[in-house]
Amino acid sequence: MESSFRELGYGCKISDLKRVLRPVRRVGCVTSASPESGLVYEVVEAKSPTQCIEELNVPPCGTLQISEEQNIEYNDDPRRSCMSGTTLHYLEERNEETLSKRILSLSRSNKVRSAIELYASMEASDVQPDIHAYNSFLSCLLRNGFEGDALRVFETMKKKGTTTGHSYSLILKAVESVQGCDSALKMFLEWDSGEETRRVFDVIVYNTMLPMCGKEKNWVLTEKIWRRIKDDGYSGTSITYRLLVSTFVQCGQTELALDAYHEMIQKGLEPDRDTIKAIVATCTKRGGGVWPSLFLNK
Questions:
Q1: Average pLDDT of 57-74?
Q2: Are 230 and 240 in contact (CB under 8 A)?
Q3: 208 with 172: CB under 8 angstroms?
Q4: Is the entire prediction scored with pTM above 0.85?
Q5: For 214-249, how does the pLDDT look when each residue is reduced to its tens digit (9 = 90+)?
Q6: CB distance 245 to 283 below 8 Å
Q7: Is 208 exposed, middle or buried (0-12, 13-18, 19+ CB in 10 A)?
Q8: Which of 25, 196, 207, 254 is the residue whose CA sits 20 to 30 A from 13?
Q9: Distances, alpha carbon 80 to alpha carbons 42, 135, 214, 245, in Å
Q10: Rounded CA gap, 140 and 285, in Å?
Protein backbone atom coordinates (compact mmCIF):
# COMPACT_ATOMS: atom_id res chain seq x y z
CA MET A 1 0.00 0.00 0.00
CA GLU A 2 1.42 3.40 -1.00
CA SER A 3 0.00 6.32 0.94
CA SER A 4 0.75 9.80 2.16
CA PHE A 5 -0.12 11.23 5.53
CA ARG A 6 -1.56 14.62 6.36
CA GLU A 7 -1.02 16.11 9.78
CA LEU A 8 -4.20 17.21 11.52
CA GLY A 9 -2.89 18.45 14.86
CA TYR A 10 -2.04 17.65 18.47
CA GLY A 11 -3.94 16.57 21.51
CA CYS A 12 -5.74 13.32 20.69
CA LYS A 13 -5.19 9.87 19.24
CA ILE A 14 -6.99 7.43 17.02
CA SER A 15 -7.33 3.89 18.25
CA ASP A 16 -6.44 2.25 14.98
CA LEU A 17 -3.37 4.42 14.25
CA LYS A 18 -1.04 1.48 14.80
CA ARG A 19 -3.06 -0.68 12.42
CA VAL A 20 -2.94 2.01 9.75
CA LEU A 21 0.79 2.64 10.10
CA ARG A 22 2.06 -0.90 10.07
CA PRO A 23 1.56 -1.76 6.37
CA VAL A 24 2.99 1.55 5.16
CA ARG A 25 6.27 1.26 3.25
CA ARG A 26 6.62 4.62 1.45
CA VAL A 27 5.75 8.05 2.64
CA GLY A 28 5.82 11.00 0.32
CA CYS A 29 5.21 13.98 2.57
CA VAL A 30 4.90 14.86 6.28
CA THR A 31 4.98 11.46 7.93
CA SER A 32 3.47 9.67 10.85
CA ALA A 33 4.44 9.36 14.48
CA SER A 34 3.90 6.58 16.97
CA PRO A 35 0.71 6.78 19.02
CA GLU A 36 2.53 7.99 22.16
CA SER A 37 3.41 11.33 20.55
CA GLY A 38 -0.22 12.49 20.54
CA LEU A 39 -0.31 13.38 16.83
CA VAL A 40 -3.30 12.64 14.61
CA TYR A 41 -3.13 11.89 10.90
CA GLU A 42 -5.47 10.99 8.09
CA VAL A 43 -4.58 8.78 5.15
CA VAL A 44 -4.86 10.59 1.83
CA GLU A 45 -4.26 9.63 -1.75
CA ALA A 46 -0.57 9.37 -2.62
CA LYS A 47 0.76 12.52 -4.29
CA SER A 48 4.11 14.13 -4.88
CA PRO A 49 5.77 15.74 -1.83
CA THR A 50 5.41 19.21 -3.34
CA GLN A 51 1.64 18.79 -3.83
CA CYS A 52 1.25 17.52 -0.28
CA ILE A 53 3.09 20.47 1.23
CA GLU A 54 1.14 22.96 -0.92
CA GLU A 55 -2.13 21.49 0.32
CA LEU A 56 -1.00 21.60 3.92
CA ASN A 57 -0.28 25.35 3.73
CA VAL A 58 2.70 24.91 6.06
CA PRO A 59 3.74 28.28 7.56
CA PRO A 60 7.24 29.60 6.73
CA CYS A 61 9.81 27.78 8.83
CA GLY A 62 13.00 27.97 6.78
CA THR A 63 14.04 25.51 4.13
CA LEU A 64 12.08 22.29 4.31
CA GLN A 65 13.80 19.37 2.59
CA ILE A 66 11.60 16.53 1.44
CA SER A 67 12.67 13.12 0.29
CA GLU A 68 10.80 12.11 -2.84
CA GLU A 69 10.69 8.49 -1.77
CA GLN A 70 11.35 7.49 1.81
CA ASN A 71 11.39 3.80 2.63
CA ILE A 72 10.22 3.18 6.17
CA GLU A 73 9.92 -0.27 7.67
CA TYR A 74 7.85 -0.76 10.80
CA ASN A 75 8.74 -3.84 12.76
CA ASP A 76 7.34 -5.37 15.92
CA ASP A 77 10.86 -5.53 17.37
CA PRO A 78 11.98 -1.95 18.14
CA ARG A 79 15.60 -3.08 18.58
CA ARG A 80 15.85 -3.59 14.83
CA SER A 81 15.10 0.05 14.05
CA CYS A 82 17.80 2.73 14.08
CA MET A 83 18.08 6.49 13.88
CA SER A 84 19.31 6.43 10.29
CA GLY A 85 15.84 5.38 9.11
CA THR A 86 13.83 7.49 11.51
CA THR A 87 10.75 9.40 10.43
CA LEU A 88 11.06 13.18 10.73
CA HIS A 89 8.11 15.36 11.72
CA TYR A 90 7.32 19.01 11.34
CA LEU A 91 7.36 20.45 14.88
CA GLU A 92 4.69 23.02 15.59
CA GLU A 93 6.05 23.27 19.12
CA ARG A 94 9.53 24.84 19.13
CA ASN A 95 9.99 25.54 22.82
CA GLU A 96 13.11 23.66 23.93
CA GLU A 97 11.95 23.27 27.53
CA THR A 98 8.61 21.78 26.48
CA LEU A 99 10.18 19.40 23.96
CA SER A 100 12.88 18.39 26.46
CA LYS A 101 10.15 17.40 28.92
CA ARG A 102 8.54 15.27 26.22
CA ILE A 103 11.81 13.46 25.50
CA LEU A 104 12.34 13.00 29.23
CA SER A 105 8.88 11.49 29.65
CA LEU A 106 9.22 9.18 26.64
CA SER A 107 12.70 8.06 27.72
CA ARG A 108 11.62 7.29 31.27
CA SER A 109 8.68 5.30 29.90
CA ASN A 110 11.01 3.35 27.58
CA LYS A 111 9.03 4.47 24.53
CA VAL A 112 12.18 4.29 22.47
CA ARG A 113 10.83 4.71 18.97
CA SER A 114 8.78 7.78 19.89
CA ALA A 115 11.75 9.29 21.74
CA ILE A 116 14.03 8.68 18.74
CA GLU A 117 11.55 10.26 16.32
CA LEU A 118 11.12 13.32 18.51
CA TYR A 119 14.87 13.69 19.04
CA ALA A 120 15.62 13.35 15.32
CA SER A 121 12.93 15.91 14.47
CA MET A 122 14.39 18.33 17.03
CA GLU A 123 17.85 17.89 15.54
CA ALA A 124 16.51 18.53 12.04
CA SER A 125 14.73 21.65 13.30
CA ASP A 126 17.85 22.90 15.11
CA VAL A 127 16.14 22.58 18.49
CA GLN A 128 18.32 21.20 21.28
CA PRO A 129 17.22 19.13 24.30
CA ASP A 130 18.48 20.23 27.69
CA ILE A 131 21.20 18.27 29.49
CA HIS A 132 18.76 16.33 31.67
CA ALA A 133 16.75 15.21 28.63
CA TYR A 134 19.93 14.30 26.74
CA ASN A 135 21.16 12.03 29.54
CA SER A 136 17.76 10.43 30.02
CA PHE A 137 17.51 9.73 26.28
CA LEU A 138 21.05 8.33 26.26
CA SER A 139 20.19 6.03 29.15
CA CYS A 140 16.99 4.91 27.41
CA LEU A 141 18.86 3.98 24.23
CA LEU A 142 21.43 1.95 26.17
CA ARG A 143 18.79 0.18 28.28
CA ASN A 144 17.03 -0.96 25.14
CA GLY A 145 20.07 -2.17 23.22
CA PHE A 146 20.65 0.78 20.88
CA GLU A 147 24.37 1.11 21.62
CA GLY A 148 25.23 2.45 18.16
CA ASP A 149 22.57 5.15 18.32
CA ALA A 150 23.63 6.02 21.87
CA LEU A 151 27.21 6.59 20.71
CA ARG A 152 25.99 8.85 17.89
CA VAL A 153 23.93 10.88 20.36
CA PHE A 154 26.91 11.02 22.72
CA GLU A 155 29.17 12.36 19.96
CA THR A 156 26.57 15.04 19.23
CA MET A 157 26.52 15.96 22.92
CA LYS A 158 30.32 16.28 22.93
CA LYS A 159 30.26 18.59 19.91
CA LYS A 160 27.62 20.78 21.53
CA GLY A 161 29.32 20.77 24.93
CA THR A 162 26.34 19.24 26.74
CA THR A 163 28.05 16.18 28.20
CA THR A 164 28.23 15.65 31.97
CA GLY A 165 29.97 13.13 34.18
CA HIS A 166 26.78 11.07 34.06
CA SER A 167 26.97 10.97 30.23
CA TYR A 168 30.51 9.59 30.30
CA SER A 169 29.59 7.13 33.03
CA LEU A 170 26.71 5.72 30.95
CA ILE A 171 28.93 5.20 27.90
CA LEU A 172 31.76 3.63 29.90
CA LYS A 173 29.34 1.16 31.52
CA ALA A 174 27.94 0.30 28.10
CA VAL A 175 31.41 -0.30 26.67
CA GLU A 176 32.26 -2.53 29.64
CA SER A 177 29.06 -4.50 29.13
CA VAL A 178 29.62 -5.03 25.41
CA GLN A 179 33.41 -5.15 25.04
CA GLY A 180 34.70 -5.79 28.56
CA CYS A 181 36.60 -3.88 31.25
CA ASP A 182 39.80 -3.61 29.25
CA SER A 183 38.11 -1.65 26.44
CA ALA A 184 36.36 0.62 28.93
CA LEU A 185 39.63 1.33 30.74
CA LYS A 186 41.37 2.17 27.45
CA MET A 187 38.55 4.53 26.53
CA PHE A 188 38.73 6.19 29.95
CA LEU A 189 42.49 6.72 29.68
CA GLU A 190 42.09 8.20 26.20
CA TRP A 191 39.47 10.65 27.43
CA ASP A 192 41.45 11.36 30.59
CA SER A 193 44.36 12.61 28.50
CA GLY A 194 42.22 15.40 27.05
CA GLU A 195 42.04 18.62 29.03
CA GLU A 196 38.48 19.48 27.97
CA THR A 197 37.20 16.03 28.85
CA ARG A 198 38.86 16.07 32.25
CA ARG A 199 36.96 19.21 33.13
CA VAL A 200 33.73 17.26 32.74
CA PHE A 201 34.87 14.24 34.76
CA ASP A 202 33.51 14.09 38.29
CA VAL A 203 33.11 11.61 41.15
CA ILE A 204 30.39 9.78 39.19
CA VAL A 205 32.87 8.93 36.42
CA TYR A 206 35.60 7.94 38.87
CA ASN A 207 33.24 5.75 40.88
CA THR A 208 32.24 4.07 37.63
CA MET A 209 35.85 3.24 36.82
CA LEU A 210 36.95 1.96 40.23
CA PRO A 211 35.03 -1.36 40.06
CA MET A 212 36.51 -1.97 36.60
CA CYS A 213 40.00 -1.38 38.00
CA GLY A 214 39.17 -3.89 40.75
CA LYS A 215 38.06 -6.51 38.23
CA GLU A 216 41.29 -6.04 36.29
CA LYS A 217 43.29 -5.90 39.54
CA ASN A 218 44.82 -2.65 38.33
CA TRP A 219 45.82 -1.00 41.60
CA VAL A 220 48.09 1.50 39.81
CA LEU A 221 45.16 3.08 37.94
CA THR A 222 43.07 2.82 41.10
CA GLU A 223 45.63 4.92 42.98
CA LYS A 224 45.82 7.35 40.06
CA ILE A 225 42.04 7.85 40.13
CA TRP A 226 42.15 8.34 43.90
CA ARG A 227 44.79 11.06 43.55
CA ARG A 228 42.88 12.61 40.66
CA ILE A 229 39.73 12.91 42.78
CA LYS A 230 41.65 14.92 45.36
CA ASP A 231 43.62 16.97 42.83
CA ASP A 232 40.42 17.99 41.04
CA GLY A 233 38.93 19.20 44.32
CA TYR A 234 36.24 16.52 44.61
CA SER A 235 35.31 14.75 47.81
CA GLY A 236 35.05 10.99 47.61
CA THR A 237 31.85 9.30 48.75
CA SER A 238 31.43 6.21 50.92
CA ILE A 239 31.23 4.18 47.71
CA THR A 240 34.54 5.66 46.54
CA TYR A 241 36.42 4.58 49.66
CA ARG A 242 34.79 1.15 49.83
CA LEU A 243 35.93 0.51 46.28
CA LEU A 244 39.43 1.84 47.01
CA VAL A 245 39.88 -0.37 50.08
CA SER A 246 38.46 -3.42 48.32
CA THR A 247 40.74 -3.05 45.28
CA PHE A 248 43.89 -2.35 47.31
CA VAL A 249 43.21 -5.33 49.59
CA GLN A 250 42.63 -7.65 46.60
CA CYS A 251 45.90 -6.48 45.05
CA GLY A 252 47.85 -6.90 48.31
CA GLN A 253 48.52 -3.16 48.66
CA THR A 254 48.15 -3.02 52.45
CA GLU A 255 49.53 0.48 53.01
CA LEU A 256 47.27 2.00 50.35
CA ALA A 257 44.27 0.14 51.78
CA LEU A 258 45.00 1.50 55.27
CA ASP A 259 45.55 5.03 53.93
CA ALA A 260 42.22 4.94 52.11
CA TYR A 261 40.49 3.61 55.22
CA HIS A 262 41.99 6.30 57.46
CA GLU A 263 40.98 9.01 55.00
CA MET A 264 37.46 7.61 54.96
CA ILE A 265 37.23 7.78 58.76
CA GLN A 266 38.72 11.31 58.85
CA LYS A 267 36.02 12.50 56.46
CA GLY A 268 33.33 11.15 58.77
CA LEU A 269 32.20 8.44 56.39
CA GLU A 270 30.92 5.18 57.83
CA PRO A 271 32.59 1.99 56.56
CA ASP A 272 30.31 -0.94 55.83
CA ARG A 273 30.78 -4.44 57.20
CA ASP A 274 32.69 -5.70 54.14
CA THR A 275 35.17 -2.81 54.31
CA ILE A 276 35.87 -3.47 57.99
CA LYS A 277 36.29 -7.20 57.34
CA ALA A 278 38.75 -6.48 54.52
CA ILE A 279 40.82 -4.19 56.74
CA VAL A 280 40.78 -6.63 59.67
CA ALA A 281 41.88 -9.50 57.41
CA THR A 282 44.67 -7.35 55.98
CA CYS A 283 45.91 -6.31 59.42
CA THR A 284 45.74 -9.89 60.70
CA LYS A 285 47.88 -11.15 57.83
CA ARG A 286 50.25 -8.29 58.48
CA GLY A 287 50.61 -9.37 62.10
CA GLY A 288 49.18 -6.24 63.72
CA GLY A 289 47.14 -7.73 66.55
CA VAL A 290 46.01 -4.41 68.02
CA TRP A 291 44.83 -2.86 64.73
CA PRO A 292 41.69 -4.99 64.21
CA SER A 293 40.14 -4.01 67.55
CA LEU A 294 40.85 -0.35 66.86
CA PHE A 295 39.08 -0.53 63.50
CA LEU A 296 36.11 -2.38 64.97
CA ASN A 297 35.73 0.27 67.65
CA LYS A 298 35.35 2.84 64.84
A1: 36
A2: no
A3: yes
A4: no
A5: 999 999 999 999 999 998 889 899 999 999 999 999
A6: no
A7: buried
A8: 25
A9: 27, 22, 35, 43
A10: 46
